[in-house]
Specification:
Blueprint lengths: L5 H15 L3 H7 L4 H9 L18 H14 L1 H21 L2 H13 L4 E4 L15 E5 L2 E11 L7 E8 L2 E8 L5 E5 L12 E11 L3 E2 L5 H38 L1 E2 L2 E2 L4 H29 L5 H27 L10 H11 L6 H16 L4
Parallel strand pairs: 1-4
Antiparallel strand pairs: 2-3, 3-7, 4-5, 5-8, 6-7, 9-10
Helix pairs in contact: 1-4, 4-5, 4-7, 5-6, 5-7, 7-8, 7-9, 7-10, 8-9, 9-10, 9-11
Bound molecules: flavin-adenine dinucleotide.
Flavin-adenine dinucleotide binds next to strand 1, strand 3 and helix 11.
Length: 378
């Protein structure tokens, strides 16, 4: 797997996505991702996409990873979510931030997909203000004892490893918790608007004893050093997920408008429909360019990469909502029916404005960037 050129990775991704796309509606209805899909992702190396080759990953650059995310995200949003959560939020973060001991213990299994990881930050009462978490840890000799209740944890239903954030008197630390550790309870959730096949669950931790070696970075580095870094990686992936959904919706609306006739003409010949198509073409193209810019800046480790990522995520998720909504509009009644993909794309797009920091949170951060960068001095 080490010397595989990116061209072959993309060829595998295209082939995988072609098989995946016709199954996405079934996964959405069943609210589960079949094991064979996870295994195919693992076999193709996608679950280690951004993990360095020395740890068994593909070592893709941010741009290559973005393109992989778009290809898979266009086929199935829940499958793309596995890439975002397992690869961006956890594996890539551990590769960059964790101790050598943790990397040796976990990364080869995560990169190969032998074990699946999830990211447990949010709680019922701590979402945008995640630092206000009530999950607690207490150091007892060589172990940390965790108690708390996490909510909205994508893939917790099937994950083997949980990157859990907990606080001790406001000092937030990050821990790797194994599913089989005594005191870990998984409560599956269903009835979501989108990302329905992501095996979402609540994670209840009752006096879970975590060995000190599973502390990720030092005590107190959980928020600034681990969570923020992970969330920026996640936002980058979500930005590309927005391009993926918007591109899929654009293709749906164009295909339909080119065939559907009303008043004796193709609806694509009506100027009001053409406006929706023109806006979609323009916005998808602009969103993709913002993602590429963020990708290049991330590869260069530019100090402005974080802001570029926030801008791409904010714009792309907004575009995904607008374009998928217009796709429903162009398809009319068929857009409101699950016999066509438009209604699912519309539901999936809304999720992107909520996860990895809501649009309002992105706006706040982008505004802070604007005020420090563009306000004239003196
Ligand atoms: C499909 C899905 C998957 C998810 N997966 C995961 C996961 O794997 N792991 C995980 O840890 N979490 C996950 N989450 C949780 C997600 O991260 C939170 O839902 C998100 O951070 C928002 O938090 P909240 O739902 O508590 O909303 P709140 O924070 O309560 O926000 C409610 C509203 O208030 C606004 N708001 C809040 N604060 C401000 C502010 N300062 N200024 C302006 N407006 C503000 C928000 O923008 C929003 O419109 C998932 C959520 C969903 C829907």
């Amino acid at each position: 797997m080490d010397d595989r050129p990116p061209a072959s990775v993309m060829a595998r991704a295209e082939a995988f996505a072609a098989d995946l796309a016709p199954r996405a509606a079934e996964f959405d209805r069943a609210e589960r991702l079949p094991r064979d899909v996870v295994e195919q992702m693992a076999d193709a190396g996608f679950l280690g996409a951004r993990v360095p080759v020395e740890w068994g990953g593909l070592g893709l650059s941010p741009l290559e990873y973005g393109e992989l995310t778009e290809v898979i995200g266009k086929a199935c949003a829940s499958t793309r979510a596995l890439l975002t959560v397992h690869t961006s939020l956890v594996a890539e973060t551990l590769a960059d931030r964790a101790s050598r001991r943790i990397r040796e213990k976990y990364l080869p299994d995560l990169a190969s997909g032998r074990r699946i990881a999830c990211f447990a930050l949010s709680e019922a009462e701590a979402g945008s203000d995640a630092a206000a978490m009530s999950t607690r840890y207490l150091q007892k000799g060589d172990t940390f004892v965790l108690d708390g209740h996490k909510k909205w944890i994508s893939f917790a239903g099937i994950a083997d490893v949980f990157l859990v954030f907990a606080a001790d008197n406001g000092v937030v630390s990050a821990f790797l918790v194994d599913r089989e550790m005594p005191g870990v309870e998984i409560r599956p959730m269903s009835g979501m608007l989108g990302n329905r096949a992501t095996h979402m669950a609540e994670v209840v931790l009752s006096a879970v004893e975590v060995p000190a070696e599973n502390l990720v970075c030092g005590i107190g580095s959980g928020f600034a050093f681990v969570a923020n870094s992970a969330l920026s990686r996640g936002r980058y992936s979500i930005a590309w997920a927005g391009v993926a959904l918007a591109q899929a919706a654009l293709e749906e609306m164009c295909t339909y408008a080119a065939r559907r006739e009303q008043f004796g003409s193709r609806i694509g010949s009506f100027q009001l429909v053409q406006k929706m198509i023109a806006d979609a073409v323009t916005e998808v193209s602009a969103a993709r360019e913002l993602c590429r810019k963020a990708g290049r800046m991330r590869a260069e480790r530019s100090p402005e990469a974080i802001a570029a990522t926030n801008i791409a995520k904010y714009f792309s998720s907004t575009v995904a909502c607008r374009v998928t909504s217009d796709a429903v509009q162009v398809l009319g009644g068929n857009g409101c029916w699950n016999g066509y993909p438009a209604e699912r794309l519309f539901r999936e797009a809304k999720i992107l404005e909520i996860i990895e920091g809501t649009s309002q949170v992105q706006q706040t951060m982008i505004s802070d960037f604007g005020l420090t960068t563009f306000a004239r001095k003196g």
